[in-house]
Design brief:
This protein is an alpha+beta fold. It has two domains: 4-37 and 209-232, no CATH class; 40-203, Jelly Rolls, CATH 2.60.120. It is built from three helices and 14 strands.
Amino acid sequence: MIDLRLCGEFRVIEGISMKRYLLCGLVALLAASCAARADSFYLSEPAWAAALSGSPTTINFEGIANPLIEPGIGPGTSIAVGGVNFAIGPAGTSNVFFVIAAGYDYGYPVAVISAQPESLNYPGDFLITPSASVTALGFDFGSLGTGFPATITLSDGSVQTVTDVAGVPNLQFFGVTAPGGITSVDITIPGTTGLDVADFSFGTEATPEPSSILLLGSGLVGFAGMLRRKLKA
C-alpha cells in the first residue's frame, strides 16, 4: 500500500526541483545572452560602422584652430570640440598639447590633435571624454611611426593593446561597441614623439533584433519542457 502522504511529499519535492532547474536554466541562458553582447572591438572602420544603429557623429578637427597651436602642457590640458573633451591624460606628465591642421605634422593628410612629449621618458597620453555616455566610439590614431603598442582603456575597465602602424603618415583605426555605455577612453603609447588622434566618431550600438529575443524565449520554453519530461519519467 502506498502512503499518500509520501506521494504528496514527492510532488512537493518534484515541484521544488522543477523550479530550481528552471531558475538555473534561466540564469544560464541570460548569462549566455549577456556574454554575446559583451564589448566588441574593431580594427576595421566599415565593420565598426556596420554594428551601429544609424550613422555616427564624426569630429574631424578641421577649422577649430590655427595649425600648431599649443593650449598648454601637462595632464588636464584640454580642448572641447563637438561635445567631446580631448585632454592630456594622467600619464602625460610633460606632454605638450597641439592642434594641428591638415598638411602639417609630418604630412598627415587630415587634421589631428596631438600630445607631444617633451621627453621620451613619458608616454603619449590622451584622455577623451564625451559629454554623455555613448555605446559606440571609433577613432584613427598614430604615433609618428614609432611602432610601439598602444594601450586603450575604456571607462568600463576594458583594456585593449593595439599595435601602432609604423611609418608616417599612417593612422590605425580603433573602434568599440559597449551596451553598458562608455564615458571615457584613454590612449597611451610609450616612448613616442607624438600621439595623434584624427576623425573621432561616436554613436549608438544597434540593439538586439527581435529574432534574438524570440530565440531566447524559445530556448527557455524548450528547456522547461525537457526537464518536465525527465522528471515525469
